[in-house]
Amino acid sequence: MQTNARSLMSRWLAVFLMGAGAACAQPAFEPAGPQAMPGKEVCAGNPKAASGSDTAALAALIAAPEFASVRPLFGAAQPQVMWWVRKARSLDLQALLTAFHEANHMLDFALSACHGNRAVFHYRGEVIVTDYVRGQAPAFAIAAKEIPDELKAQPNGRYAVYFGNRNVYRGDFYPLIDELNAHVAGAEFEVAVAGTPLYRDMAARARSINGNIGGMADFMLYTVAYLKALRAQDPAAWRKLVARKAMMAHVQRLWTAAENVLALAAPLAPEQGGLYQYPTAALDAVYAPALLAELDAAGLRHGSPPRPAAASSGGGFTTPAASFSVPR
Question: Which residue positions does the secretion signal occupy (predicted)?
Answer without folding.
Answer: 1-25
